[in-house]
Amino acid sequence: MNAILVAVIGLVVFALGYRYYSKFVAERIFRLDPNYITPAHKYKDGVDFVPTNRFVLWGHHFTSVAGAAPILGPAIAVYWGWLPAFLWVILGTVFAAGVHDFGTLALSVRNKGQSVGTIADRLIGQRAKMLFLFIILILVLMVNAVFAWVISNLFIKYPASVLPVFIQIPLAVWIGYAVYKRQKKMLIPSLIALAIMYIAAVVASQVSWLQVDLVSMMGGQEGAGLFGLGAVSSAFFIWIVILMIYVYIASTLPVWKLLQPRDFINSHQLVVGLGILYLGLIFTNPEITAPAVHAANDVSWFPLLFITVACGAISGFHGLVSSGTSSKQLDKETDARFVGYLGAVGEGVLALISILAVVTLFPSTAAFTEAYSSFGAANAGGLGNFVEGASGLAGGLGIPASVATTIVSIIIISFAATTLDSSVRLMRYIIAEIGMEYKMPVLAKAHVATSVAVLASAALVLIPKGPNGFGSGGYLLWPLFGTANQLLAGISLMLIAVWLKKLGRNYMVALIPMIFLLFMTLIAMFQQVFFEWAMWGSNSNMLLFVFGSIIFVFAVWIILTAFNVLTRGVDRQLPVED
């Protein structure tokens, strides 16, 4: 099968979905009002509530949700063949993710910019709200651990990426001051910043002393590191500490100082990166060597395929970003379609090229099946296969392999970093809200809540790996991340459906993908938690069993409560903004 043909089919479906389906949802279902005063204007504070140009906000939103997950999930899911992953990415993006991301943004804008967890109180009750907040808290904690793990390991594996990534931070701060204090335009400075990053990437990939290789500094793989640990574990520990310091600062700064300008730079980086990869696809014109459908003996595709693709098709974390940060920056309500739905489409475009980069990497079908011999092998090699495959596509444009590898790793790290500090910011909001609910106002203080978020994330990701190492926490949680993330998306779609029903509108656009998603996710989670991870399971894991059991029980409780509201019409007060 020709990869270009598959890419064209996917991109055309995405374009039609945005052009027609999102317009239908915006005008006929959500009924967006260009004159509605958004929370960004009503509660403007210069820190979290900041009216923002829709292109800049799309950059923030897109790069916050486009972390490593839409790359890693599809790169693993091709284990069952490229066709099932491809179909779920395009259909899930158009009919599920688009409605979910767009809907949670519109719902939050009509509710003072509050998170979906808080809104659950008005729609389905106080108890459901607290259960939902705890699920969200566990999810963002896992996001923090997983993405910190990914970034640290990529820094270790690709040391040439460190300099370009860290150069971006002062450049973003400079752009923030230039735009918001001196009223300059953001486009040209952000393009200059991107050019500087890529120049640094080219130079660092060719000049060894510009590569921050902590493992080599400690004597190589066999070298002695800190606290009696090996060089690799010590390097991992150092990067986690640096990342936690960074996200503490980034998540407490006003959004215009770092978050918005850095994300705007990254939105250009994503456009450039996707442009390079899709142009490389055209110039190399590769054939797909992976089988369309691969009959796996160890792990069935049903229902695990939909959980594994995760953010590549739909993600509950997107709803947290939509209702947590993006809704507080939306200038006009009609911008929600551009920011929310098009952000989901961008995620789908990224997932599509992830699939194509991996399934065209191998010289033959036999080579693919050998690399993807088991689901465990797919998990272990997914991200590395994408980096190699994407580098090969970039090489079709004449980009040297070392430079291409560095640029691809920079793209992944940059997106993972934006997701990480947005997630810590969201975790701060949730901790503060739980603190106020349970009469612990000290937790509502920004720096206290952020400290709790950062320390908990660091503790989780630094769970020891073996007797002499750090760093299995983030990776161990990845199987649970997929199910918890999809479960959150299903519950968020349920909230949208309840909201639309209370407004007397057609709620099928949210209800149908909600039913499908919850059905698949609950089955997958039940199988994993109670048949695999439990003490009596085939892959006993108490960490996943405990976290998974809590999330599963809370989710079922919320679903039953919301189902009662949907079917019996329990009288709940509509959100005050409506």
From TrEMBL:
Residues 2-365, 374-524 form the CstA N-terminal domain. The chain crosses the membrane at residues 85-109, 130-152, 158-179, 191-212, 224-249, 270-288, 300-321, 341-362, 399-421, 442-463, 475-500, 507-530, 542-566. One of its GO terms (cellular component) is plasma membrane. It is a multi-pass membrane protein. It is found in: Cell membrane. InterPro entries: CstA, CstA_N. It holds the Pfam family CstA. It comes from the Bacteria. Keywords: Cell membrane, Membrane, Transmembrane, Transmembrane helix. One of its GO terms (biological process) is cellular response to starvation. Belongs to the peptide transporter carbon starvation (CstA) (TC 2.A.114) family. This is Carbon starvation protein. It comes from Bhargavaea beijingensis.
